[in-house]
Structure formats: C-alpha cells, structure tokens
Design a protein that fits this description.
Blueprint (H helix, E strand, L loop, with lengths): L3 H4 E4 L3 H7 L3 E6 L5 H12 L3 E9 L3 E4 L2 E4 L3 E8 L7 H4 L3
Antiparallel strand pairs: 1-2, 2-6, 3-6, 4-5
Amino acid sequence: MKDAHEIIIRPVITEKSMVGVQHKRYTFRVAKGANKIEIAQAVESLFGVKVEKVNTMHVRGKATRVGKFSGYKPDWKKAIVTLKPASKGIEFFEGMA
C-alpha cells in the first residue's frame, strides 16, 4: 500500500472549492493511480476525520504555448472528499473559508 503522503499530493484552493468547505467538501490533487478507497483511507489517516464519500475526476492538461513552441500541461487527478456530518472539519481549510 502507498503512503498517505504519496496519495494526497496537495489541496486545490479555488473559489469553488472554498464554497464546498462550508458543506464539509474538500478538494485535493491526488496520485493518478489512486482509487477512491485509498484516497479515503489517506485523508482519514492524515487529518483524523471520517470520510463519507469520495468523487474523483481526471483533469486534462491545458494547451500551452511559448513563442512558436506549443505543448500541453500534464494531466492530473482531482478528488472531492465529503466528510460525515458528525466529523470535525480539516483545520488547514478552516482559516481560508
């Protein structure tokens, strides 16, 4: 099994994800090979919370261009983790919302 720090890469901080914090929905950038069960276990072990469900999606890399050279940014995987109502929130996000 992978380490929790290898599965959860970083939080996604956007206006839309900050609205979800009020409803105990947290957004993370995760490893491309991670499944929903691994993501839920990683969040529970890192932050000490109880996960209700996990939604995942693959985000395609955007086209980029520098002068005459063009290419794509890398694809990545995003997970939206919903906590149980009785669970406490994640302290990292609480100061931002």
